[in-house]
Batch of 2 targets.
Target 1
Amino acid sequence: MMRRFLRQPGGRLASIFAVILCAMSAVMGSYVYSACQKASADYTTLVSDIVLAQQATPQLRAALEEGSRQPSSEHIKYIDYFISLSKQHLNNIQSSIERHRYLISDVEYLHNHFSELSNRLSDLTQQSQQAQQRPELIDPLQRVAMEVGGAQAWLYNQLLEEVRDTSVQQRLVMQRLSIAVSALLVLMVSAAITLCLAVIHLHRQRNVMHQLMLTDELTGLYNRRHLVNVASAALTQALRDRAPLSLLLLDIDHFKQINDTYGHPTGDKVLRQISKQLRELSRPSDTLARIGGEEFCLLMPNTATHDALQAADRLRREIEVNAMSDMELHANPTISIGVTTCQSGSLTFEQLYSFADKALYQAKALGRNRVESLLPPTEPSPYSELQAYGHTLIRESSDS
């Protein structure tokens, strides 16, 4: 079924559209995943580290000022503690940044400042250790520490600005993410609807093609192909049930004269009108088909020859007396009918058709507008003198 779908122009178009939608959905899905990762990033720990680092800077300055007024080893140790604390905060901030991969590119320009500040804090630690031995180095230590503190304040302010900008971007990403999710849902629904419509269209096209293969376009009756299939199954069933099966061949008399006199459009109307009448007069269990230009076939399962002859004569009389309402013809068309019966389903359709065709030829040879029957020679008649009765019945009906 999939191959047949792809062979159809609409199927190929639907497949291309589905592939495009799938590709767009994949791209959109990738964007949604990336946006979700970016929108779900939590910078609380990083901001806390920056705030703590900013608080350590004025504490270091206060320790330096106190140490310059009253130099002592205790004050220098206090200064050394805050220098170590500043360096620890710096390391924590760098570790937090590395955990946020979407922030790394935004603060890449600060990498050198981090390295420089780390080196200066290490140098400041060495100077602090030297100042414990030489108190006169406290003043230079204070100047250097002030410069380092200024560098820290600038760096941490830049980081806070970047985190603030990233938070703003997060809100924008969340808005775009909601739009992207909605668009993705629309794409998926569109793809599902498109595929469903394509499958429905294919199913309808298949039904139409199947119907065209089995029916006659002009009359809407079944064609010869369908009749042969149904007849084969009916003969098999008749053989199994040992039941009779009758076949009627119907031909419109002098149909060529109708076409020549009134034109082919009128001839087509006659075919449609007679087809409609035959369909209304036949049983639901019968199969009516147009098998040629003006030739029809009626397959009647579970029908003996006597019943088939009565049905055939009823059809003949109805066609003869039923006027063509919307056509101005000199006389109503008539039909000739050939009837045959297979008593037990032991014949093939071709054999059964051959006997009905011979009976039809006999009806035309005897003057048309009549019914004739011809039974297979190997088929015993369930009625005594059945053919003679049938011929007498038809002659009496014609005379009346």
Note: The CA atoms of residues 95 and 275 lie 90 Å apart.
Target 2
Amino acid sequence: MFVFVNVSPVEVLVTPSIQLNNQQYVLKGLIYLGCEHFVCRVIDAQGKVWYNDGIETGRLCIEEGNFVNAV
């Protein structure tokens, strides 16, 4: 399931999961865009955060740390 929300220019607090209609949804990644390309951060099953910018890093994802520590 993908959810798209336009939050610009509002500051957003990101939480790792939400509960909707008795179903829990867990965040697995963020995609954001600007200047005609997008970058993303993906969260794996162990909570590691991986960063990718196709222009800057190509196919390489760079580990940034753990999601729990970033919140």
Note: The CA atoms of residues 50 and 63 lie 4 Å apart.
